[in-house]
Amino acid sequence: MSGEDVEITDSSDDTKLYATFEHYEEFVSLRDQFLSIDIYTEPTGDEDRLESLVLRKITMIFDTYQEQPYLLDPYLERLFEPVVGTLKSHAKKFVSSSSVPVAKWRLHRLAGLVYHFIKFRGYKTITRFFPHEIADLGVVLDYISAPNSPAQDVAQWALRYVVLLWLSLVCMIPFDLEQFDESGHVGETASRIEGVAKSFLGRAGVDREGAALLLSRLYMRKDMVDRLPNFLSYGTTTVEGLSDPFLGMGILRVVCEVTKLGLAEQIQSQRDPILRVTHVLEGNPSLMGNTIIRKLRTKIISRVVIRLLPARTRRLRAKGRALTDTGAAGAGDDPEDEIDVPEEVETVLEELFKALRDKDTIVRYSAAKGVARICERLPADFAEQVLDQVLELFSIHSIAVASIYDMPSIAESTWHGACLACAEIARRGLIPDERLSELIGWLSRAIYFDIRKGAHSIGSNVRDAASYVLWSLARAQSLDALKPHALNLARHLVTVSLFDREIHIRRAASAAFQEYVGRTSLFPHGIDVLRKTDFYAVGIRRNAFLVAAPEVAEHEEYRPFLIDHLLSVTLRHWDPAMRQIGAQSLRAICELDLPKLGPEAASRAAKLLTVPDSGDVHGALLALTELAAAFRDSKQSNELEAERRKVFAFLSIVPLKTIQSPRQELVAEAACRLISTGITLPETQHAQSTVPHWRHVVDSGLKSRSVAVQEAAAAALAAVSRLVDCSAVVDRLIKEFEGGSGHMQQSLARALGVLDYASHPHGVEAAVRCLLRMVDRKSGSQNVEARRNAFESMPQILDNVSSALTQNLSPEAVREMTDALLDGLTDYTSDERGDVGSWVRMACVKGLAAFIQTLFARAASLPAFSSYLPPDQYHNAIGGILKQGVERLDNVRQQAGDSFVTLLLLPLPPVEHPERWRIHGQAKMKELFLSENESVGWNVGNWLFPRAVQLLDYERYREQLLTGIILSTSTKTDSTQRPVATALVNYALQLPIVTDEPDHYDQRSLARDLVDQAQKHVTSNNVVIPVLQTVNVLLEADAFEELPRDPDGLQTLRSLLALVTRNVSRLKNPQRINVSMKCLVNLLPMAELQGECIAQLSQFLSHQFPRVRADTAEYLYLVLSSKDTGLETDEVEEVLLETEWSSTDKAKVDEIAKRCVDLLRAARAS
């Protein structure tokens, strides 16, 4: 079978649902192929790999149906019996002749296949298909107990597990086990089975589970009942001082299975020894620290009591109630309610109540199910007492606290256990109607349980369990009992489904709401609300808060409750993101009736400003900010102006010292945001302002180190600039901040860009000059973020004043800003964070595109458009953007690509001779980048570079494009370097050697341009090395193979040769030496340059650096052996291979290097 058949389903099948077992034929084929293997012969390496592959394919089919295992049930017997039959044949053969060797790993894979069946469908289902003839008992027992049995091998865990399960089935045969004993050895078979099981009871793997199941089934046999007391005695003695948790788990698992499935009489007679095991276990702290052991202990004590009580003496009052049932389904009085409750019940219930407060969920859940199952069998009055005890768990940590949020974190376990117990009791219809009110009261608090613990919170499991209880009540309680609580429940559930932080809680509450709507029809507007808060609607937090919540709030029954929750809970949440989105949701709901709801919500939110907790203050400020924005943007903004001023006045409640505290950045940001949305013209006047210190808030925000606070302060200043002239403020900021620290420069650059220069001049010329000074490469800011912010502010200013551009900015100022943006494209600053200059380059790319868009849009109103955007400057900008579009960083390329495509689609400006601003090769570029049906990003190198290299045809942008391609070709990033190198080579190979056609490239020009770039910056390794690496890529691909035929091309190659061989001994950069050497060697196959190249080889073969000599010899050998040089080079290749070029004996190496050169000269002469 070929490896290509491995794929069973494609990636889309991960969530596919099947209607039938579609892979039946394939499964049978693979199984038969697997079973055809002879497990008695060792496989070869290829066979071993093939068999492993077949097993893997089978397991992949199992995995495909893991979510729908029942689909295999009709085929399960046919699929499984041949597999287990093969295992049985092996066991019989081994028992009859144990000397027959077996292939260990083939047997392991066979047992693994059986195990995968069990794992897939469960041991209870699969065990039924094991062979269970009378003769099988001896076979299985002899097989697993033999000293040389494969099952004794440590690695054969799957085999042991399977055989133990098989034995657990066979030992249940309805015949006395003494029939299998030899005469005189009564009880030997049972003892052997018991011994085998006990030997595996302490294992760490699944074979322990198989052994426990075997022992439990053995002890449940009527003829083996007398062995259980001995095992319980053994268990009591063992666990008393045991430290090995695995043996403890095995013993408890046996007892657990016996108490679950054993005869009631057997359990009742052995209740004291069983409970003694659990009591002794409680005194072993080593074992009680294990979660699994505590869970098993909880199961045992609850099951013992359940077996002591009469089976189901109470009828379920609502089990199976029809969806349309409108009446109660009460249980009535049961004559069997009067029973004697064993004294052990009270003791065990105390233990279970303690387990409900366990630190681990699985223990609490086991205890909850145990309590509910016991309640099912107890008389009504006793069951109600149990419910009282469960409800009292809620009050343990609630007595001395003001609210649920003040409880200790340990309360989480208690409340979770109590909720689980209530859910299990409610699910069984055991909650009396008169107790429903008290229970719902506690659940109304549990559904909001959220306690902060450090940087996170706990309690989501409590809220989830509370939703489970409410869901259970909907299924079990009568309509008459639920009706008084319907509105309260509806409000709580819809609030949690909309406003909880966790997605699974929102969905759990939505499911409970749906259950009530479907079963009771008691919830107001149930169907409509459910449509707005269904599983998918509440799945995304933003959608739940900002879309679903306002839709639900349209119903008056829910609106006050939602607003109250946002103000009292969400705005005080520990997570700042929740406070933020909660404030936005509050605004959306209040906008339903803003004149009525807005002022009331604002006054309630303002009360939180006096709370000592900074989180509450932050939430209140966020809410006031959103409400102020709502008042401002409302159609009734004039009537609501007074309310907006009231909201702004609330800022005076927060002390300035609190806002300016270095640890209160969130509060400072929110305060600045409130100023930006709430400031009005009267507030800007000192005499009329209700918040005298608002200027200090903005000023301290601008000086903050936090970027978020700086942005908020800049937004506040922008809002003020729309109301009054801020020229004096701008002058002061420039004086204070321009020469300040880096973060002050960042803040200044950001603030100057957001001012509303259209409303008032604000000293726009001074602002532009300041920004130009900041980005000056020689005397400007050394802070890269400040330069980035300055470049981002320039297009903002231009767009702001574009409606009156001639009155605000001179053509010289606009051109200077454009030149500055072009210069910013060459910022390649790096620090410990990496290429931080890319932030500047991306800002400049966006800035240039925005400049061009703004100026094109205003071209008709500009008397001298070409003085604002000269055509030459425009084309320089296009070339600069294209250069960034082919460089090495994916995000820079993507930004440049987006900007370039935007410019490509711009119509020409409506001015005289508009064709001067037409992009060269515009039609070709649209064909290359806009003809795709699917939009592919410029960050995808394999898509971009084959298209981008074709733009080299256009001479106007060629130099800039080639520079960008060179940088990408020399990068170490494989996802960029490989596609650009391939594209450049393919492009160069199809170029003519020489052409005179306009806007067409040729190989001669390409080579000349590359060499010219290196020669212009011959002392800069940052330029020369990338150029030479690009040349090497082309030479290695024989792209310039025909170039020497052209005289000018040959002269260009000679210039390249001179460049790479000049002053080699003086070069100190190993990378430059290496790339120069490769260029020289790659020029060697060209006959016209061969002599000159051979003469220069000795510079590298006898270089002072041993590594250079070794690399040269290796690379020269590769070229000589792989390329056609026209020389007989066998002897030279032999010398290159045999010489130790990194030797410290320099004289010897020099001599050998000279010999190599002489041999090459001789070969050329011949």
Description:
The chain has 1166 residues and is mainly α. Helices cover 64% and strands 1% of the residues. The protein has 57 helices and two strands. A two-stranded antiparallel sheet has the order 1-2. α42 packs parallel to α45. The longest helix is centred in the first third of the chain and has 21 residues. The chain is flat and about 110 Å long. The N terminus is likely disordered.
Quick gist of this model?
The chain is an all-alpha fold and 1166 residues long. It is 64% helix and 1% strand. A two-stranded antiparallel sheet has the order 1-2.
Task: Record keyword descriptors for this entry.
single chain; 57 helices; 1166 residues; disordered N terminus; two-stranded antiparallel ribbon; mainly alpha
Specify the structural class: mainly alpha
Helicity range of the residues? 55-70%
Strand order of the largest sheet: 1-2
What's the β-strand tally? Answer: 2
Set out the fold topology.
Elements: H1 24-35, H2 45-64, H3 76-96, H4 104-121, H5 123-126, H6 134-145, H7 157-170, H8 188-199, H9 207-219, H10 228-240, H11 245-261, H12 264-269, H13 271-282, H14 285-288, H15 291-308, H16 343-355, H17 361-377, H18 380-395, H19 411-427, H20 436-446, E1 451-453, E2 456-458, H21 460-476, H22 479-482, H23 486-499, H24 503-519, H25 526-532, H26 541-552, H27 559-568, H28 576-590, H29 594-607, H30 614-633, H31 641-649, H32 656-660, H33 665-678, H34 694-702, H35 707-721, H36 727-737, H37 742-754, H38 764-775, H39 784-801, H40 805-808, H41 811-824, H42 837-857, H43 865-868, H44 871-885, H45 890-904, H46 922-929, H47 941-948, H48 955-969, H49 974-989, H50 1003-1016, H51 1021-1036, H52 1047-1061, H53 1070-1083, H54 1090-1101, H55 1106-1122, H56 1130-1138, H57 1146-1165
Antiparallel strand pairs: 1-2
Helix pairs in contact: 1-2, 1-3, 2-4, 3-4, 3-6, 4-7, 6-7, 7-9, 8-9, 9-11, 10-11, 10-13, 11-15, 13-15, 15-16, 15-17, 16-17, 17-18, 17-19, 18-19, 19-21, 20-21, 21-24, 23-24, 23-26, 23-27, 26-28, 27-28, 28-30, 29-30, 30-31, 30-33, 33-34, 33-35, 34-35, 35-37, 36-37, 36-38, 37-38, 37-39, ...
